[in-house]
Amino acid sequence: MDGYSDGIILRQTKILGGRRMVTLFSKEFGKISAGTRIDERGKSKAALSMRPFVHGRYEIRELRGNHYINSAEVVRSYYKIGEDVDKFMACSYVLEFLGKITQEDQPVPRLFDMTCDFFDVMERRKSHFGTLVMAYIVKAVSEIGYEPEIGHCVSCGRERPAAAFSVKDGGILCEECLRRLNTERESLIYEVDFGIVGILRYFLENPFEAFEKLALEENEQKRMKEIMKKYSAYYLDLGDLKSEGFMADN
Ligand SMILES: [Zn+2]
């Protein structure tokens, strides 16, 4: 896979001999692990592209099954993300989430573009960072094939108003099906009102720039978080996220 790709550094670790191992979410090749000699603490332009929240362009070489980043340059640095602790935490959570939901060597170019759009809007935002994170989770899980069904009841298939959201069935339940399933004591069913379904639809149908001024109310945010947390954990192997505190406290 020799070539150039745009990308975002997800994480990096130091290894012996002044080298580093980085996990790069590249637009062309998907998530890859690569060795590099470029030090993020350096003063060069290449160094800056090794930092988090930077959209970079990376020269990737493959040698005997291992990847190396030989050179890199910054396309855009979302440096303002680092100027606010809460914003930084929210964006760190998204990077970690992105690292967990993507597979090695499987490109998802739209998810890459979406992540850059998220950073762009986040950089300018002053408050309610959690609203954007919720939008990111909903859009990201949809991008990799787990879009929640909100148009039809997932049990009977009819176009009915939503009475609940079933994590296991991946979408909304109508009043009738909710009553039936509830008596069977199904877990992972959350009662929802039109507000929550409307928010999901709004997230799914609009780009990030449309959310620039959107702020969920505290109660909506709490419900969305509860549902999306269970939803993403059910479909994706998230394990323990280090920035999990973000999902717990905000
Ligand atoms: Zn139904």
Describe it for me?
With 250 residues, the protein is an alpha+beta fold. It folds into 2 domains: 1-77, Beta Barrel (OB fold (Dihydrolipoamide Acetyltransferase, E2P)); 80-250, de novo design (two linked rop proteins) (Up-down Bundle). Helices cover 38% and strands 23% of the residues. It contains 8 helices and 8 strands. The chain has helices spanning 45-48, 85-101, 109-124, 129-143, 175-183, 194-205, 218-235, 245-249, and strands at residues 3-14, 20-26, 30-36, 54-63, 66-77, 164-166, 171-173, 189-191. The strands form 2 sheets. A 5-stranded mixed β-barrel has the order 1-2-3-5-4. Strands 7-6-8 form a 3-stranded antiparallel β-sheet. A hairpin with a 2-residue loop joins strand 4 (54-63) and strand 5 (66-77). Helix 2 packs parallel to helix 4 (129-143) and helix 4 (129-143) runs parallel beside helix 7. The radius of gyration is 20 Å and the shape is elongated. The model has no long low-confidence stretch (mean pLDDT 91).
List keywords for this structure.
single chain; 250 residues; alpha+beta; OB fold (Dihydrolipoamide Acetyltransferase, E2P); de novo design (two linked rop proteins); five-stranded mixed β-barrel; three-stranded antiparallel beta sheet; 8 helices; 38% helix
Average pLDDT reading: 91
Main pleated sheet: 5 strands, mixed, barrel
Which fold name is given in CATH as the topology of the largest domain? de novo design (two linked rop proteins)
Rg is: 20 Å
Envelope shape: elongated
